[in-house]
Design goal:
The structure is a single chain. The chain is of the alpha+beta class and 119 residues long. The strands form three sheets. Strands 1-2 form a two-stranded antiparallel sheet. The radius of gyration is 21 Å and the shape is elongated. The chain has five helices and six strands, in the order E-E-E-E-E-E-H-H-H-H-H. The chain has one domain. The longest helix has 21 residues.
Length: 119
């Protein structure tokens, strides 16, 4: 929050306290917080959350590729839906991507599927 003093932009600093063990301690300020598995930042941007989910999805695809060499399409589909897609779909109604860059980043995971199926 900003205030103006004689035409200059001055940042107001707020300190919040918490009562812990009968002592008042200042509450630490963080740039982001994880609540129910969703990363929130101070601007309510879900960019870090989306990047985290994309990384987990690619990580799970790598595990499938390394550990399951001979899969049928049905087996791969089942593994994909249970391990990869579950990371991408978890609470998507909360962090619903609306920025084109975020949507394209999420779709990048699904564009990799044909490459994984043929190897």
């Amino acid at each position: 929050m900003y205030g103006y003093v004689l035409g200059k932009n001055v940042e107001k600093s707020y300190t919040y306290n918490i009562l812990e063990n009968s002592q008042i301690k200042p509450l630490a300020r963080t740039d982001q917080i994880k609540d129910l598995g969703i990363l929130l930042d101070e601007r309510l941007s879900f960019r870090d959350h989306i990047n985290d989910k994309i990384n987990k999805a690619f990580w799970m695809l790598g595990i499938i590729k390394r550990n399951f060499k001979h899969l049928t399409i049905q087996s791969f589909t089942m593994l994909y839906k249970n391990t990869v897609r579950s990371h991408l779909d978890y609470c998507s109604s909360v962090w619903s991507p609306y920025i084109k860059k975020d949507i394209e980043a999420l779709e990048k995971v699904q564009k990799e599927l044909p490459r994984f199926c043929h190897n």
